[in-house]
Amino acid sequence: RVDKIVGPGIQWGAEAKRPVVGHVGIDLMAGPTELLVIADAGATPARVAADMLAQAEHDEDATSWGVTTSSALADALPAALEAALATAPRAAIARASLERTGLVIVVPDMAHAVEVANRRAPEHLEILAADARGISQGVRHAGAIFLGDMTPEPVGAYLAGPSHVLPKLG
User: Fold this and answer.
1) Choice among 124, 126, 153, 164 that is catalytic
2) In the prediction, which pLDDT does 167 show?
3) Segment 73-99, tens digit of pLDDT
4) CB 64 within 8 A of CB 81
5) Which of 50, 132, 145, 170 has its CA at 20 to 30 Å from residue 155's CA atom?
């Protein structure tokens, strides 16, 4: 017997917690992992694709969205995702996730990108854009925010912060 069980919201973590709810404390029954990337024309397709893939490979229910003000970036993302999938050890899982819940949205400006993020309220939000800090000031709903090209979501998962267990599904 233990006092409390904590851990990430991947499919296996949630299933391990389910039978003990009410008998021992758990942190939360989190849903599948989520990432929403806000990107402008300065973001590289390979970087956005790598970050989306890093979430998609968790499990087939993971959600990876790209929201961009650049139609050129949106047009380049499918090829960048395919290139990343070609070398990914968990490519089958990531591909299934991207096909089920992956999304690329083109918006007219950053205000609309922030509104999409606020409505989605993602577990992880990356802002890969000029003035990422300024853009983040409009974010009202996100589990964790990662600003700029040097802070991909895995920094939060493995290097920074006290916990990788964040609220999901809005």
Assistant:
1) 124
2) 64
3) 999 999 999 999 999 999 999 999 999
4) no
5) 170
